[in-house]
Amino acid sequence: MHGNQVVAVGPYRFLRNPLYVGTIIHTFALALLMQPSGALVSIVLIGLFQLRLIAGEEAFLTANLGETYLAYRAKVPALIPSLTPRVAASPIHPRWPQAFLGELYMWGVVIAFAVAGWRYNSFLIIQGVVVSLGISLIARAFIPSLQANPQTKA
Q1: 146: exposed, middle or buried (C-beta count within 10 Å: 0-12, 13-18, 19+)?
Q2: What gap in Å lies between CA 31 and CA 149, rounded to an integer?
């Protein structure tokens, strides 16, 4: 969201909630490191939490953008990406470097799985995930542009 416009570029032309889909995939990946009962509980609880976040975000965007967001919502699927863009690219461009840095945690998780996953050493993978979380929190503390801004959605 930028002002009263929907910023529909990149993955947002194919899918309304790419970050939430990424979190769901992330949950399934981490579930591989858990006991089956814990994995099931985590998947269900995080899935429900994500659905609640989506509902809250969509209510916020509808209240603030009205018809603009409702038209976008009618064309672009929520969780299963379309194979082709559903809306034209916005004239407003996202700040990709900021978006990349804002997802340091997820990039670290990908690296942890890529480096330690081939050996399926869950201890090393978990260490990588925790280190990624720490780096992400430090980056958010020292890079002001990574602070959460409820008025911005890339």
Answers
A1: middle
A2: 30
Burial class of residue 48 in the structure, from the number of CB atoms within 10 Å of its CB (0-12 exposed, 13-18 middle, 19+ buried): exposed
DSSP letter for 91, please: S
Give the span between the Cα atoms of 45 and 47, in whole angstroms. 5
* Start-end of H helices in the chain: 18-31, 36-65, 67-75, 96-102, 104-116, 122-142
Phi–psi pair at 5, nearest 5 degrees: -120, 150
Q: How far apart are CA 112 and CA 107, in angstroms?
A: 9
Beta bridge partners of 5: 2
| Angle (nearest 5°) at CA 53 between 111 and 147 | 60
Cα 78 to Cα 46, 58, 75, 128, 135, distances in angstroms: 17, 10, 10, 30, 30
pTM attached to this predicted model: 0.64
The per-residue pLDDT for range 30-44, each reduced to its tens digit, is 888 889 999 999 999
